[in-house]
């Protein structure tokens, strides 16, 4: 039996370590899941009081306040001591890190610190190593590229057998002499073959500068809400999304895979019976992509689970009949990707060819479900390639978007490495020479966007949008804004 420690540097969506731990437990190995730090969302003018990751995530909230995701208090000696003590108590044969894009530097810092105390292999997995293996393999001993469930089990088996661990398919490995071994890609998993995620809280440790390490507590998103994915992948190829990058790397044909209904129900039954949860969060990229699957799943979910839930949809993947089924099964909140009201940005730069007319229809279909279901939309703001005309088009679009369709803010575009959109930006130097909107321009339009979600009549908002005095001084809009800062992005936790 091998002992594998799984470290998540920052709390957030906690599915990956739980899934890997589930695989290890099923294979007869032992595991420990350690959450090192809580991340913070802070006002932009306070960000200098925190450490900020490479891709912090900047957004404008419902009060038109600029905020920053993924801020954290500097790593302290106390936190390192608690982390080292937790690992020494567990005695791992290998230490794994779940590494998203943007925290490679942080993962490198902590890995280097731990290598002073542990002479075991360090393996990294997640989007960061998958997209930047050349960089990550210089900091870790092994990096997993793409899915890690079979990789982590093979690593544990080889450690148990004292066999060579540098030849594991789906990894790059750095030998003692510095040679980099680039192993072949691993085939995509059949999702019904993977184990249930491990939510046995006795195997969880939370550090975050507490007086001592805490065990047996819920990860952040397991208080009242249970996160689950019924599928992996996405049929769409949005240029700003990691799924399009995965399609390029591993093929589009089999990129969308869904678990069987029986296995999804088995996991949900376990969660309902063993955890103190009040709602379910379906974290599928597009939950509504397969009507046939939902038609069979939803009646069983209603009869056997019956908890309220949130999910994500795309404008072309639902219709009134499907939405009615979702509501009847317990859906109380749904988020739909909108991203922009500019047809030019959507088609030329986002690779989202769906007509804005269909987006408006889809939004109205959600709103028609009634007040029992909260509808939310995503919007990406401050996009390279945007011009004044695109900002105006988005404003005009939002005037037509039903007021009952809510948002908790607008995220600025993040140019993650190797994404198609990022390559557009890097390859088109003309952006630097074109007339791009200023910060003041964006401040003005962000406030107009938020104004469209408030109680003011549409025609009055349109007049304000045409009034030059507000254009020259956007602060005049501040008293008019309708605050919705009590809402979560799922609409479940208030």
Give short descriptive properties of this protein.
globular; 494 residues; 22 strands; 17 helices; alpha/beta; Rossmann fold; nine-stranded mixed β-sheet; 2 domains; single chain; pyruvate-formate lyase- activating enzyme
β-strand amount? 15-25%
CATH architecture of the largest domain: Alpha-Beta Horseshoe
Identify low-pLDDT runs.
none
Q: For the report, how would you describe the main beta sheet?
A: 11 strands, mixed
Percent helix range: 25-40%
Query: What is the oligomer described by this structure?
Result: single chain
- What is the CATH H-level superfamily of the largest domain? tm_1862 like domain
Describe what this molecule looks like in 3D:
This protein has 494 residues and is of the alpha/beta class. The protein has two domains: 204 residues, Rossmann fold (3-Layer(aba) Sandwich), CATH 3.40.50; 257 residues, pyruvate-formate lyase- activating enzyme (Alpha-Beta Horseshoe). It is 35% helix and 20% strand. The protein contains 17 helices and 22 strands. Strands 3, 4, 5, 6, 14, 17, 18, 19, 20, 21 and 22 form an eleven-stranded mixed sheet that branches. Strands 11-10-9-8-7-1-2-12-13 form a nine-stranded mixed sheet, sandwiched between helices. Strand 12 and strand 13 form a beta hairpin. Helix 1 packs across helix 6, helix 13 runs parallel beside helix 15 and helix 13 packs antiparallel against helix 16. It is globular. The two termini are 44 Å apart.
């Amino acid at each position: 039996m091998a002992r594998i420690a799984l470290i998540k540097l920052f709390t957030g969506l906690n599915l990956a370590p739980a899934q890997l731990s589930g695989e290890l437990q099923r294979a007869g190995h032992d595991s420990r899941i350690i959450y090192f730090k809580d991340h913070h969302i802070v006002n932009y003018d306070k960000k200098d009081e925190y450490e900020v990751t490479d891709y912090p995530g900047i957004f404008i909230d419902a009060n038109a306040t600029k905020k920053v995701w993924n801020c954290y208090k500097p790593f302290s000696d106390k936190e390192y001591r608690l982390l080292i003590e937790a690992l020494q108590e567990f005695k791992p044969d290998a230490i794994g890190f779940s590494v998203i894009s943007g925290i490679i530097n942080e993962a490198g810092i902590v890995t280097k610190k731990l290598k002073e105390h542990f002479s075991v292999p360090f393996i990294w997995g997640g989007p960061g190593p998958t997209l930047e293996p050349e960089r990550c393999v210089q900091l870790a001993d092994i990096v997993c590229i793409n899915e890690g469930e079979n990789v982590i089990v093979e690593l544990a088996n080889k450690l148990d057998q004292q066999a060579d661990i540098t030849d594991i398919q789906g990894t790059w490995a750095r030998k003692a002499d510095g040679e980099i071994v680039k192993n072949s890609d691993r085939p995509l998993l059949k999702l019904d073959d993977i184990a249930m995620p491990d939510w046995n809280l006795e195997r969880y440790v939370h550090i975050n500068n507490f007086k001592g390490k805490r065990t047996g507590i819920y990860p952040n998103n397991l208080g009242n809400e249970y996160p689950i994915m019924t599928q992996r992948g996405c049929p769409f190829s949005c240029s700003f999304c990691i799924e399009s990058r995965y399609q390029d790397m591993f093929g589009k044909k089999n990129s969308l895979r869904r678990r069987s209904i029986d296995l999804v129900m088995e996991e949900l039954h376990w969660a309902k019976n063993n955890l103190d949860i009040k709602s379910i969060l379906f974290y599928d990229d597009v939950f509504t992509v397969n009507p046939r699957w939902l038609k069979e799943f939803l009646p069983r979910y209603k009869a056997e689970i019956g908890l309220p839930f949130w999910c994500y949809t795309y404008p072309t993947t639902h219709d009134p009949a499907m939405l009615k089924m979702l509501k009847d099964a317990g859906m109380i909140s749904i988020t739909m990707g909108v991203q922009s009201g500019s047809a030019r940005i959507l088609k030329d730069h986002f690779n989202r060819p769906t007509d804005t007319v269909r987006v408006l229809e889809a939004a109205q279909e959600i709103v028609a479900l009634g007040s029992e279901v909260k509808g939310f939309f995503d919007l990406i703001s401050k996009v390279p390639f945007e011009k004044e005309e695109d900002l105006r088009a988005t404003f005009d679009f939002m005037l037509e978007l039903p007021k009952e369709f809510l948002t908790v803010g607008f995220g600025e575009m993040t140019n993650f490495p190797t994404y198609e959109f990022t390559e557009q930006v890097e390859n088109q130097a003309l952006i630097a020479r074109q007339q791009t909107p200023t910060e003041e321009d964006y401040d003005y339009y962000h406030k107009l966007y938020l104004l469209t979600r408030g109680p003011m009549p549409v025609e009055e908002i349109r007049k304000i949008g045409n009034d030059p005095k507000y254009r020259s001084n956007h602060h005049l809009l501040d008293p008019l804004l309708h605050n919705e800062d009590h809402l979560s992005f799922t609409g479940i936790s208030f």
